[in-house]
# Entry
Amino acid sequence: MLDGLPLVDGHCHSILATAPDREAFALAATEATVAPPGGLSLLDGPAGLAIRRWCAPVLDLPAGAPMEEYLARRTELGHAEATARLMAAAGLSHLLVDTGLDGPELAPPSEVGRAAGAEVREVVRLERVAERLAEQGVSAAGFAAAYADALAAATVDAVAVKSILAYRAGFGGVEGVRPSPTAVRTAAGRWLARMAKARGGNGNAVPAPPARLDDPVLLRFVLWCGVDRRLPVQVHTGLGDRDLLLAAADPALLQPFLAAAEGSGVPIVLLHCYPYHRQAGWLAQVFPQVHVDVGLTVGQVGARAGEVLAEFCELTPFAKLLFSTDGYGLPELYLVGAAQFRHSFGRLLEAWVADGAMPAEDGRRVAALVGAGNARRLYRL
Ligand SMILES: [Zn+2]
# Structure
């Protein structure tokens, strides 16, 4: 159902500028940030199997070739050639790149687009805009207005904004009202003073660490500023690396916010969602502006993607379900995300057609919607 359909990657990041070593490859392929002890391999699991299955043939090896052989072949081809082959094989027409991760270890997004033969569009991370303000210097009283201006300037060409509230405070305390101007001013005073202290006082011998927006009031403030900007708001939910508190990343905890933001009509896109994808599906059904994105989850669960995608589809209306890879660091993750999605979502739709649950023409229509059409409509591509 999805073979040959160019996919719109609605959420991804940039790739590493240089080839990772074996351990860095294993960490980049999973959500782990620490390798297990005693030489146990992170890659001997669903994510590693998916890389061996979908990526090995693109590097001229049989599908399922052992990881050692795969990594040796990758080194033999060189980082640039391996990247070009893997990205091109993903069959992506657009990459919507979250530019909030912008360290020197990453290639510029335009390079990722060139390798993929895809158009690159920007998604602006709401927290990063506030952090840049703190790094440049802003007063507590002027913070709210300066943030609104900075966000407007940063999003002139953007197709969406993104919140990583799940990583910074979690959804537990999220209320249905936006913070008052007084609360924002007080919180800004507290946060800016803390950042100035953390970043100063080293006599400029070492560069100041980047600012980190972790104040719960300001995190909610920037989320509402994202809504005010009237671009789709992507929200990280569910799994990620262990920097987040998984229990506080359940999108169902966002219900008061989703209800309060409903009147704006601004689309909210719940990213990743797993293992709360069933909650996300319910939210997409009952809130008119809520959408659900399957990125990261499909690649990480590998061969189980069919079952997990079926669970995504239990309640989510088809026009609100979106494909993405959440590719980050390794070109393998873009190809695995795309190939596993084509395979597993295609098989799911074919099974429904075979069962009489869905006419074949609806299967083709839904495949095109979830793979590309919904994102083209939502992000105005
Ligand atoms: Zn991501």
About this structure: The chain is about 45% helix and 10% strand. The mean pLDDT is 96. Residues 11, 13, 98, 326, 328 surround zinc ion (CB under 6 Å). The longest helix spans residues 331-354.
